Each structure stands twice: as C-alpha cells, then as structure tokens.
Amino acid sequence: MQLMIQTFHKYSGNEGDRFTLSKPELKELLVTELGNYLGNAQDKEAVDKVMGDLDSNNDGEVDFTEFIILVGALTVACNDFFQDQKDKQEKKKEKRLQ
Ligand SMILES: [Ca+2]
Ligand SMILES: [Ca+2]
C-alpha cells in the first residue's frame, strides 16, 4: 500500500494539483509503471478509456481514491489470470494421471 501511495505522488506532483493525476500524468504513470502489463498504454484511446473509467466524478483528474480503484481492478485481473493458469496446469496434471 505504501508503494502505491509513493507511486501516485511521484506522478501526481508533476503539474497542476499535486494531489491528483491529470491525463498526461496518468499516462506517464501507466506507461512507466505498468507498461509491461498494459501493452497498449501508449495508445491514446487506451489512456482515454482508463481515464474515463477511473474519473468517476468527471473532473478531468484522477484523485487517490479513484486511483486505488485501478489498482484494485488490476490486482483482481492479475489474480484471475494466475488462477486460470493454475487451473489449467492442474487439469493437465489430472489428465496425465488418468
Ligand atoms: Ca497533478
Ligand atoms: Ca476525478
């Protein structure tokens, strides 16, 4: 959690309000921190979409509460992915044993 707060503030302080992420700040955070996970984060439409999804009060900035929702969603997505992989591996193992 500490890491999330540090990451948020590393980018939120670049311009405008120090405690919220503007679109360019959000983009930089996504590309730099999550580039490996979001292969198309460079894509302007993808950034627009993430921004639109996160900015629940539509003020054009992502505050920390809104940011935590992204982190939560990504954590769930990763968890589902690894759970899927594990299930597949276990199924393979079962097949081999039969
Ligand atoms: Ca800012
Ligand atoms: Ca907002």
UniProtKB/TrEMBL annotation:
Residues 42-77 form the EF-hand domain. PROSITE patterns: EF_HAND_1, EF_HAND_2, S100_CABP. It comes from the Eukaryota. Keywords: Calcium, Metal-binding, Repeat. One of its GO terms (cellular component) is cytoplasm. One of its GO terms (molecular function) is calcium-dependent protein binding. The keyword Metal-binding applies. SMART domains: EFh (SM00054), S_100 (SM01394). Gene3D superfamilies: EF-hand. CDD domains: S-100. This is Protein S100.
